[in-house]
Amino acid sequence: MTLKIERFSQKRGTRIRLSGELRFEQLDDLRAEIERGGARITLDLVEVGLVDIDAVRFLRACEARGVEVVNCCAYIREWMNQERRA
User: What's the pTM value of the predicted model, to 2 decimals?
Assistant: First the structure.
């Protein structure tokens, strides 16, 4: 399965909605979308069902830089929390 990336400009910034599987191979494309998005970025993972360790670490790094990560399933959020504690 591939990753679909959709970008929406909003009053409060840019929302990037992801659908599919987020894996190492897609991170460069996602990084480019984030860089084009401007100052306030929200990553919406509502339709992401599978991630790998590289994606989890990338999402943690995004949060550390101020990117908001929303609507991710519980296992992804828990994995991100575990990586933060490690």
Answer: 0.92
